[in-house]
Amino acid sequence: MNATTIEEQVSQLKNNIFTQLHHRTLLQFTGQPVVEDDLLLYLLLPKINGEQWSEQLDQSASAVAMIYAALHGHELIDEQDATSKSQQLTVLAGDYYSGMYYTTLAAIPDIQLIRSLSGAVVKISECKTAIYEPEKRSLEEWLEVLRVIEAMATQQFMKRYHFDCYIEIAELGLVLARFNRELKHWQETHQKTRFMKILEQQEEYASKSYEQILQHQISDLSSKLIRSITSSPILLDEVKTIMLQHVKSDMREHQTMREG
After folding, report:
1. Exposure string (b/e) for 223-235, b if CB count within 10 Å is 16 or more?
2. Topology of domain 3-259, per CATH?
3. Is-contact 73 90, C-beta < 8 A?
4. 140-150 pLDDT, tens digit each
């Protein structure tokens, strides 16, 4: 297994998902659904590491990616312009991806998986709703909210197929990927997401700039992820090398953007 092969597997799964979610009108007005490479990488990690894999697992992984595509579609709705044609189609795109997720799951004869992922969707939706509520939470509680949003569906997928030993790496990697996207978005647009505005208000970050908050989280999560990968008793040496290169590559990219 090498980096090129892993990229090919991620690309193949993404293309399969795009094919399943293809809708000409939605593609024209809302673009391709958002399916992050990092998500697919961590979903495929057991396969990359040589675990027994099947077509059903590919279908299940696709269903998990569709969950995130649907949830992301709903995140793109503009509260100030929710009645425009493009925004209405954005809502419909999220609903369409949700429907395709259930259609994909219905083709998999696994009631336990359906229950687990349905429960995860409920919990993720509750956590997304919490971002808009006035309830005060600690920094640790807000980071747990983010962990649920970014990683719970993947966690349930791994639990169902007895890949529990990969969960810690996947959770750290997916939350790290979210902060990496937040930092890139900030560096390119200087716009803050609602969740990051909440973190900015935490007492622990009272004396830090917005970018310093993001850099702190990225540094902390990167260190934890590197330790988790390095100390993993189940990852093959070549997989460890590739995963570590992936983490460090993202760190270098942000460093370059900051210096530029």
Report:
1. ebbbebbeebeeb
2. Farnesyl Diphosphate Synthase (1.10.600)
3. yes
4. 999 999 999 99
